[in-house]
């Protein structure tokens, strides 16, 4: 029976029912490509409250306080308070292009949107896509400049300036510094694994594989996150997710084995760029799991900045010991395009991309951002082809498609559930 047709006594009873406090759940870790959410089991009381809400105006979007994000590797992990209500989708709001045409509201007629509304909608979409564009193209920029600077120098330069900018930004916004040995231990461990190991393996692996292929392998990390979350936190991924894990392993094999066959009979996977990219992805996956621990002790944005600084320092030391070209008397040989590539990798590929993702994530639902994960390897592949002449073999194309489908299958329950 529609809410408007209920007897007055029933409506009064519903209005007198006190609203229960929203249930609290542990922070839920979610990546661009891996979102998980928990929901309370329905009860008679919650059904009555839900009936009351259906007859009330829509709730406003969840406040930013119900969601916190921590930057990890080339990603952002967000904690969602499952008890917060009214999360609005991140898709650009529908412009006033449709309106009622009769008094009963049964028909609709399209009304052209104003240029200002269309421009705002275009800007919203650009804001959503830009982090993935920056992450993908930063891989290409790193690949192009590493031969003249050295891998560990590029890895350190990607982290240190961006981390300093984030710490300064967080301090200007009144965010608290990590306090106590537990907080600094968590941030330091997070920095060594998620920043130093991830960027180190990534930069070293880019010397031996293409940016597009490397990006696909790295973006497979949600498969590992799903396994670790299941083992450590008891999270279930369901039958579709389990099938996605199997499909993901097959996709990764198709990506990596053909590359080894091209290197000759003496080639082994242990020294290949694909293996280093795989290690980079595993570092990022462990970092994703660590976010729950880190966020217990530190402000998320401040932790993001400090973990980049702490992770960048050992990479800088390794760069000096490794006598990377940029630190062994060859820095004057860098061209302006090399300098711009380094700046782009650090500022846009780290600091700005994290900031834009934080901004979008705190505005509403994370489902849209999660569904755009395929854009990072897509941008890396397109610009790797345009600027570096990189190509995929037919088998690797099949492996890339299998891997991306597998990522979607692992995320299927959370994406469909939030919709």
UniProtKB/TrEMBL annotation:
* Coiled coil regions in record: none
Where is this chain compositionally biased, Low complexity type?
A: 39-49
Question: Where does the secretion signal sit in this chain?
Answer: 1-23
**What are the UniProt keywords, alphabetically?**
Membrane, Signal, Transmembrane, Transmembrane helix
Q: Which Pfam families match?
A: EamA
Q: Where in the cell is it found?
A: Membrane
Q: How does it sit in the membrane?
A: Multi-pass membrane protein
| Domain of life of the organism encoding this protein | Eukaryota
Annotated GO CC locations = chloroplast; membrane
Task: Please report the stretch or stretches of sequence annotated as the EamA domain.
Answer: 130-255, 272-411
Where do transmembrane segments lie in this chain? 152-171, 183-202, 223-255, 275-294, 301-321, 341-359, 366-388, 394-412
Asked if the record carries the keyword DNA-binding, the reply is no
Residue ranges for the region (Disordered) are 37-67
Please give the PANTHER family that the UniProt record associates with this protein: EAMA DOMAIN-CONTAINING PROTEIN, INNER MEMBRANE TRANSPORTER
Q: Which family does it belong to?
A: Belongs to the drug/metabolite transporter (DMT) superfamily. Plant drug/metabolite exporter (P-DME) (TC 2.A.7.4) family.
Q: What is this protein called?
A: EamA domain-containing protein
Q: What organism does this protein naturally occur in?
A: Setaria viridis
């Amino acid at each position: 029976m529609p809410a408007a047709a209920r007897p007055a006594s029933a409506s009064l009873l519903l209005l007198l029912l006190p609203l229960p406090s929203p249930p609290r759940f542990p922070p839920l870790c979610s990546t661009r490509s891996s979102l998980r959410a928990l929901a309370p089991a329905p009860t008679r009381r919650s059904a009555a409250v839900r009936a009351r809400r259906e007859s009330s105006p829509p709730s406003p979007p969840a406040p930013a306080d119900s969601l916190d994000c921590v930057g990890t590797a080339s990603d952002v992990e967000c904690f969602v308070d499952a008890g917060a209500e009214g999360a609005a989708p991140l898709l650009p709001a529908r412009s006033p292009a449709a309106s009622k045409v009769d008094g009963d509201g049964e028909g609709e007629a399209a009304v052209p949107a104003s240029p200002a509304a269309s421009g705002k909608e275009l800007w919203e979409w650009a804001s959503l896509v830009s982090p993935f564009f920056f992450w993908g193209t930063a891989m290409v920029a790193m690949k192009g400049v590493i031969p003249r600077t050295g891998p560990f120098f590029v890895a350190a330069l990607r982290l240190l300036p961006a981390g300093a900018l984030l710490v300064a930004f967080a301090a200007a916004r009144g965010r608290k510094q990590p306090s106590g040995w537990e907080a600094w231990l968590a941030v330091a461990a997070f920095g060594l694994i998620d920043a130093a190991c991830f960027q180190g393996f990534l930069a070293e692996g880019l010397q031996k594989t293409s940016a597009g292929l490397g990006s696909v392998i790295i973006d497979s990390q949600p498969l590992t996150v799903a396994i670790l979350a299941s083992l450590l936190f008891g999270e279930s991924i369901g039958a579709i997710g389990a099938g996605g894990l199997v499909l993901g392993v097959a996709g990764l094999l198709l990506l990596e084995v053909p590359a080894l066959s091209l290197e000759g009979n003496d080639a082994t996977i242990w020294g290949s760029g694909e293996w280093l990219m795989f290690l980079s992805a595993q570092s990022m996956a462990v970092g994703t799991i660590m976010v729950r621990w880190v966020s217990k002790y530190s402000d998320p944005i401040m932790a993001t900045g400090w973990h980049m600084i702490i992770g960048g320092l050992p990479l800088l030391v390794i760069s000096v010991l490794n006598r990377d070209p940029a630190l062994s008397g060859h820095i004057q040989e860098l061209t302006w395009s090399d300098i711009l590539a380094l700046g782009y990798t650090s500022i846009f590929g780290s600091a700005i991309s994290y900031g834009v993702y934080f901004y979008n994530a705190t505005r509403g639902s994370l489902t849209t951002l999660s569904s755009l994960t395929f854009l990072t390897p897509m941008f890396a592949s397109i610009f790797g082809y345009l600027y570096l002449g990189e190509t995929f073999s037919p088998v690797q194309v099949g492996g890339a498609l299998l891997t991306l489908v597998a990522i979607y299958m692992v995320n299927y329950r959370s994406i469909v559930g939030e919709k």
